[in-house]
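Run log, item B.
One chain of 178 residues. Sequence copied directly from the ordering sheet:
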Amino acid sequence: MNPAHDPQTIPEPVPDGSRGRQAATIAETVGAVLAHAGDATSPKTAADAAEIRAITDAMVRLLVGAPLRSDGQLTIKSLAEEAGLRRNKLTHKHTGLKDLFYALVKAQQGPPKAFTDKERELSEQQKKDLARVRAERDSLRSKTQQLARIVHVLEVENHQLRASAGADGVVRVMPVRR
């Protein structure tokens, strides 16, 4: 028997570089156990066992990064396409395998990378620049509104001067007192 199919064998820890292979080994082991359990329960579940094998084989291919029938994304839609099944087989019938797939995908992605000091400084500088640019934008917006009010007042005054000019249309300048 293949050690990956033996339920008593626990996969050895693998370096972070091969998380996909470790996840694929887990998927293959779980799938073999489920398929054997399906074979042992009753003869009418042979189709279920075949579906389980197809799903776990598809999981292995997707997690390793060698898809045959799908786009290779780590989604349920791609998993169903890769297994040659309809998506509702995973979302309604084999929900345990769906949950296992999501868990393996999450484990494969690993913990988020910590920021370096340089990245943190760059982020702080970008936040300061953004605050400065926003303040400048707000200042320009208020100046634009003020200029629009000034233009409007000048248009009203111009209209009043033209209306008071009389019939000849000549605007006369008033003498300035000193």
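Observations after the first pass:
- Confidence is low (pLDDT under 50) at residues 1-17.
- The CA atoms of residues 62 and 74 lie 7 Å apart.
Flagged for discussion on Thursday.
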